[in-house]
Design brief:
Blueprint: E1 2-3, E2 6-7, H1 25-39, E3 44-50, E4 61-67, H2 89-97, H3 99-113
Organism: Arachis duranensis (Wild peanut)
InterPro entries: UBC (IPR000608), UBQ-conjugating_enzyme/RWD (IPR016135)
Pfam families: UQ_con
């Protein structure tokens, strides 16, 4: 029997605390690929995002460009969005100044253009 990490003097069996499972081949591959991406990220990636339920963007399909700068991973990748460099700055400023109105307009535009 184990007590405080040491076997007792009784004749009960002792137990090993070493893990009994091994890392799968797919886990090793994912880890290796993540290390490679971290060491040499692609300069440009894209992603598709589905609008979350119960938001102005519900069921919309949105495309995102991700840009890795040369100082990655010291600084995060850029997604290209800020009020100053938004495709339509007026929409970005509406988001910052009047979120309720922004969400109303965003819901209408999502239903119209992103489904």
């Amino acid at each position: 029997m184990m007590t405080s990490g040491r076997p007792s003097s009784s004749s009960a069996p002792t137990y090993s605390w070493a893990p009994t499972t091994s890392v799968s081949a797919s886990s090793k591959r994912i880890h290796r690929e993540m290390v490679e991406l971290n060491n040499d990220p692609p300069p440009h990636c894209s992603a598709t995002i589905i609008g979350p339920p119960e938001t102005a963007y519900q069921s919309g399909i949105f495309f995102l460009d991700i840009i890795f700068l040369s100082d990655y991973p010291l600084n995060p990748p850029q997604d290209g969005w800020s009020p100053d460099n938004a495709v339509v700055p007026a929409i970005a400023h509406l988001y910052l100044e009047n979120k309720a109105k922004h969400d109303l307009v965003a819901g209408e535009w999502t239903a119209r253009f992103a489904k």
